[in-house]
Amino acid sequence: MKSRKLDQLYRQVIMDHYKNPRNKGELSDSDVTVDLNNPTCGDEIHLHLKIDGGVITQAKFTGSGCSISMASASMMTESVIGHTEKEALEMSHQFSEMVQGHDHEPIDENGDVEALAGVAKFPARIKCATLSWKAMEKAIYETENR
């Protein structure tokens, strides 16, 4: 019974982020913008990051896709703001481990990202969940190679 209630809570968190996305929009003065898509299902993300002294100070996204993809983008932007690029990359690694069903370290302070752990039960949805995180990784690597 506890597992069912937890699953229901997680679904509510995912739907909240999908219906009320955090950090949705564009940054006209972003340091880097990355566009990625998942050709398998049509999800797409346009991620904008503002980075100051190696710290992600702002993150916004636009795009379209399924509830998992868009909720994950909302959660990711909330999670990485205020963290260093290195910390954000580690968070992305931990997220990837989580959605593949592996042991992982806690990812975010408020625990919303953990709501996506159930994606591990649906391998076809892993790419949906990781799209925004891969965009963030690509954005960081692009800023490092400037």
Automatic annotation (TrEMBL):
This is NIF system FeS cluster assembly NifU N-terminal domain-containing protein. SUPFAM superfamilies: SufE/NifU. InterPro entries: NIF_FeS_clus_asmbl_NifU_N (IPR002871). Residues 10-128 form the NIF system FeS cluster assembly NifU N-terminal domain. NCBIfam families: SUF_scaf_2. Pfam families: NifU_N. The lineage of its organism: Bacteria, Bacillati, Bacillota, Bacilli, Bacillales. It comes from Listeria floridensis FSL S10-1187.
